[in-house]
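Exercise 3.2. Students should predict the tertiary structure of the chain below and write it as structure tokens, then compare their answer with the key that follows.

Predict this chain's 3D structure.
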Amino acid sequence: MVHRTQLIILNTTKVGERSLVLHALSPDWGRRSFIASVPRGGGMALFQPLSILDAEITENPKSDLWRAHALSARHPLLGIRTSPAKNAMTLFMSEVLWRIVRDGAREDGLFEWCERSVLTLDALPGDYANYHLRFLLELAAALGFSPSLEDLAPFAGEHLAEVRALLQSDFGACMLVPLNGAARNEIAELLLNYIGYHAETRIEVRSLRVLRELFR
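Answer key:
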């Protein structure tokens, strides 16, 4: 059976010379892995973190690893792919999703929220240094944790005032909350600790180091 669907790429694993395992979110199956062929002459740009693809999926009755083919970019994401800072953010966002959303998990609305998050970052002309913090707060809500100030307070420490501002501001005001690089990094870590606590897992996100360097 063949299905038409969309995929948001979280991570990839190379298999042999011409194949990749795509670790992805889909609206149909939540997080799931698929096997795909790499187009001749390159084509790896198609599989960058948080790329949003149209795909055909062929079920394999003998394996849980179904084949993805007829892959094409659903959105060009030029605002992201031409910006080193935005690319670093998508690397961080995709790693968080890859580590927190388990294989086989299907949260209602998670794919649609994630697609909106990627397209919003792509469209922002500037003032997005706080975007990954807003992303973490919205991710907690998308996963059903519904963060409140009272719930976040035990994790916030000396950053309670900044967390309150981020949590209670609308999107535009949230992007303009004044934070230096050190505070932004510490808030990202405390929000990861908060999400990990509720998900009952420890989240180690290596790509956070890149954001530390870009948004000092």
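Discussion points: The chain has two domains: 2-73, 78-214. Residues 181-199 form the longest helix (19 residues).
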